[in-house]
Amino acid sequence: VQLQASGGGAVRPGGSLRLSCAASVRSSSTNYVGWFRQVPGKEREFVAGIIRFREGAYYEDSVKGRFTISGDTVKNTVYLQMTNLKPEDAAVYYCAAGDVVGDWTRTTDYDYWGQGTQVTVSS
User: Fold this and answer.
1) CB–CB of 18/117 below 8 Å?
2) How many CB atoms lie within 10 A of CB 88?
3) Tens of pLDDT along the chain (123 residues)?
4) Which ranges in the chain belong to alpha helices (H)?
5) Distance separating alpha carbons of residues 7 and 112, to the nearest angstrom
């Protein structure tokens, strides 16, 4: 399984971006998909997660109400719609997938990772 993350860019505070995570195959290995972000010198941080064919999504507290994760099973793609972006949201964003994820925040629970896409938020 290969994950391709895209959609990053540079925006001003208050702006929006939509990230995409496309999986190379449709399989149970991508049942759980999470988005993480990382800034230099810090650990990778969980942002949002979704389970294929199930209702509901999971978010880190600081992005609740601003970010929305969704999936398109036909396109085998998971999106992260980010609105009202803040400077502290700037990071490299990674998508990750696994067949079972016990703890959304634990990076070792994921089997596959995308290459990362840069998000810059500044005025």
Assistant:
1) no
2) 10
3) 899 999 999 999 999 999 999 999 888 778 899 999 999 999 999 999 999 877 789 999 999 999 999 999 889 999 999 999 999 999 999 999 998 889 999 999 999 999 999 999 999
4) none
5) 19
